[in-house]
Every structure is written in C-alpha cells, then in structure tokens.
Amino acid sequence: MKVHVDPERCQGHTLCNMIAPKMFQLDEIDGHSSPLSEEVPADQEDKVAEAVRSCPEQAISLS
Amino acid sequence: MSVEEIPLDADRKKNRYEFARHAPEYRHQFEAITQEMQARCPVAWSDTYGGHWVAAGASEVFELARSAEYLSNDHDIEGVRRGYKGISVPSQDGDMQIQGGFLEMDPPEQREYRQVLNPYLSPAAVARWVPVVEELVRASLDEKIETGRIDFVDDLANIVPAVLTLAMMGIPLKSWTVYCEPAHAGVYTPPDSPDQERVRQMQVEMGEHLFTQMAEIREHPRPGLVDALVRAKITGKTPPDMELFGVLLLLIGGGFDTTTSLTAHALEWLSEHPDQRERLSRERDTLLDPATEEFLRFYTPAPGDGRTITQDCEIASTRFKEGERIWLSWAMANRDPSLFENPNEIDMARLGNRHYSFGLGLHRCIGSNVARMVFKRMLTAVLDRMPDFQCDPAGAVHYETIGVIQGMQHLPATFTPGPRLGAGLDETIEMLQRLCDEQGLAEPVTVRKAKAQIGH
Predict the structure, then answer these.
(1) Chain B residues within 8 Å of chain A (Cβ atoms)
(2) Binary contact (B354, A55; C-beta < 8 A)
(3) HEC letters along chain B
C-alpha cells in the first residue's frame, strides 16, 4: 500500500498525525502533513486507512 | 434585472428556505431545520438577512468551501475593490466597520498574513506552551477546589484561553481582564439589549489597550504575534494600523469564545452522562483525541461563515450570480448522515470524523492547534481533580442566539472538594509573566523550539 498527501489540498487539520503519528509528520511551521514513508508497513495499514477517511480535505490517497 | 431574467432568477432560486439563524428559536430547532434542509434543499435561497444562499449539506459545503476562486471572503470596507461584505450574515452595517483580519481577505494578502503567523500557531509552536497552560489550569482550579463549587465558564474556560492568547501576543498577562469580558460580551449581548452601552465601553477600553500595545511593541520589540504583525510586510507594504488591529481582534475573537464554548458544552454533556465521563477518564490514552474531535463536530462553536460569489457559476448543482451572498453552515454539514452515522449522537470513539468545525479550505482556523491543546488540558485537569462534578442545569446559561458563536455564558457545578496544589491565579500569572519574558516563549517556533520550563 502506498500513501500520498496532496500538498495542494492539505490545510493542516492534523487529524492524520493524531490517528497515525508513525506515518504522518507535520511541518514545524504550518502543520501541513507529509508521509514519513511512501510505502505503508502492514501494521500501519488500518491506521492509514482511518486517516484517509478522517481527513476533512480528503487530501490523502492510497494506491 | 430584465423582464426575461426574472423567470430565470425564480428558477435558479426555486429551492427556498426561510433561514433565521439569529432568532432565539433557532437553537432549539437546529436539528429539525438541518434534517429538513438536507432532505429537501441542501443549498437553498433564503430571503432573510438581505437575501442569501444557505449551504446545509456536507458534500455541498465541501465543494463550496473549496471553491475559493468563486467564493470571496473579502470585506471591502472602503469600497475600493468590489464592495464585498465579508463573512458576517447579515453583514456589518454602519460607518465603523472593521475588516475581520485575514479571515475577511482573499489571497494573496490572506496567504501572506497566515505565513507571518504560522510559526507561532503550528502544532510544534503550540506544544511549547503546554506547561504554561497546565499551570494556568491548575491555578484556576486551585481558586475553587476547596469550596466544592465552580463555574466552568467564569472560573476556568474564560480564563485560560484569554491569558494564553495574551502570552502568545506578547501582551502583559495581568491585563487579561481588559480583554476577557468584552470578547465574550461582544458576542452574546443582543443588539437591542440595555447592556449594549456597557459592552461598548469595555470594547473601547480593550481597543485602546490593544492599540497602545501595538505602539509599544513597535517601539520596543517584545516577541509574539503583535511583534510579527507590526513588522510584517504584506504584498511588499507595511499594513495600516487599523488592518493590524483587525487581525488582532480576529485572533481574540477567534480564540476566546470558541474554546470556552467547546469546553463548557463538553463538560455539560459529561456531567449529564457520568458513565461516558468515567470511560473517557479511564481510557483517555485512546479516547481523548477522538472525543475532542467529536465534541468539536457536535457543538461546532463557530457554526458557519459567509462568502460572496465572485462570478456567475454553477457549484453543487446550483447556479449562483456574482455578488450573491452565501452562508456555509459548518454546523449543519457536521450533522449530515451521509458523512456521519447517527449524526445527532455523540460517539466519543467516532471514526472517520472529518468534521467542518475549523472550516475547510484556505481559511482553516489558524488557531485549531491552540484550541485542541487548551481544551484537552482543561478537560483532563477537571477529570482528575473534580471527577464527580455535577453541572446545575438551572444555572447553565447558553447564548440566547447562536448565529455567531454557539456559546455558553455560565456553567455552575458542584463537586467533592479537593486540595490546592499550588499558588493562586494572580500569583501564577505573575510567575508565568516572568517565565515568558525570561524564556522568550512567545518567539516563533523557528527561533525557539523548546518547551516552556516551569521550575518549582
């Protein structure tokens, strides 16, 4: 599973980092999200899927 | 409008709803109105407040909020652009209008202001203040802990956000009382109330204090949000003082009432559901975050914002004309069953909680990280120190109208008394002032990364 955060859509709601802190890091200055790795480890798949569903901007996608 | 255009206009506005958000009854009819609009007309024209569209459905609000090229926040005070009237519906009237900071601007100015302030309000920036907030909460509770009686609004939720905001601004903490009452009273006092004169006077004093601080900090720099603003260049120019004043009022208006409202409503609900309260306290490691998001969703302290349509367009299956006003209802979107199962119930463990309470798109609330942090610190301290609190329904005072902020004015409660843990509020505020000054806590996170150090 690969995860991508669309930087144009992300507005720094930070829900992804609350749900899956090992997968999403937040920019120090504006709190926008980026994945710590493109590839999602098996034990993080559920959390990442939940982060996708929880993003108010729907900025996270999986492939 | 020409004769030919009239039937077309009637067709465009065929979905109608009389939407009177400021009326006292609205608060009690909110769920029913939401269900009706979402079933019948998730985007509807209302003749109220000068005539405006109302977007009530989740997917419609989503599409509209993210269509910034067609929806402007601009408040053109001087009538030098397109005369748009900002985010209040009904719009402000009279001579003394103030632009509500960058919330009533469009890019590029809006984006540049946010870039100036982001380093003070990001998650990393906010995390540094946790020890300060914990001290403020401890002291506020210490003032009441031995009596067994507290008003969660007057004695806690009004105090902590106010003192913290001043700390982040670089304004002397002891002046928090100059800001606190007018910030709240300005919102909850109805326009026709006999109290208006008293409130206006307090707002004047607050304004004078703020202006003085701006001038002082410009002359003798002190770190914080005010410093960042007085030194800012927006589109290459130094903004006029009134514009900076508007930004500061936005930070105050955005931060005080809303956090108070969230905290009071959550505590009221937890008092009414002691089994849920116990569960939250016991399972806070996993539940505190989702419960916070759920209280945000259900109570939506800032229920919506207005926009002006910038060009004829079709969005969310509705044809809009340039200049028309539209109200984006975050509060109603948050109760849409298509996104939130059993939307009118609070589920502290709710999954997929992509709520609208901090807005959506470019204008996402810049204080969202502050709000969450302060709420969680207040909530956990109450759960720890007064776990059996009982709110008094007869004493709870909700704002009469929830058109601007869905707030609470008073929330008295009783509890089993406990021990004081430290110094009282005034002494603690003095100590925190020294701390802020010595540690430069109000610097941007790019300058100062470390957490505040409270030495006891």
Answers:
(1) 62, 66, 114-115, 118-119, 122-125, 289, 293, 351-356, 358, 360-362, 364, 368-369, 445-446, 449
(2) yes
(3) CCCCHHHHHHHHCCCECCCCCCCCCHHHHHHHHHHHHHHHCCEEEECHHHCEEEECCHHHHHHHHCCCCCEECCECCCCCCCCCECCCCCCCCCCCCCCCHHHHCCCCHHHHHHHHHHHHHCHHHHHCCHHHHHHHHHHHHHCCCCCCEEECHHHHHCHHHHHHHHHHHCCCHHHHHHHHHHHHHHHHCCCCCCCHHHHHHHHHHHHHHHHHHHHHHHHCCCCCHHHHHHCCCECCECCCHHHHHHHHHHHHHHHHHHHHHHHHHHHHHHHHCHHHHHHHHHCHHHHHHHHHHHHHHHHCCCCEEEEEECCCEEECCEEECCCCEEEEEHHHHCCCCCCCCCCCCCCCCCCCCCCCCCCCHHHCCCCHHHHHHHHHHHHHHHHHHCCCCEECCCCCEECCCCCCCCCEEECEEECCCCCCCCCCHHHHHHHHHHHHHHHCCCCCCCCCCCCCCCCC
pLDDT tens digits for range B126-180: 999 999 999 999 999 999 999 999 999 999 999 999 999 999 999 999 999 999 9
What is the domain-level CATH number for residue A16?
Answer: 3.30.70.20
Count how many domains chain A has.
Answer: 1
User: What's the whole-model pTM score?
Assistant: 0.96
Domain containing A16: what range? 3-62
Q: Name the residue in chain A with its Cα closest to that of B362.
A: A11
Question: Domains in chain B, ordered, with CATH?
Answer: 5-439 (1.10.630.10)
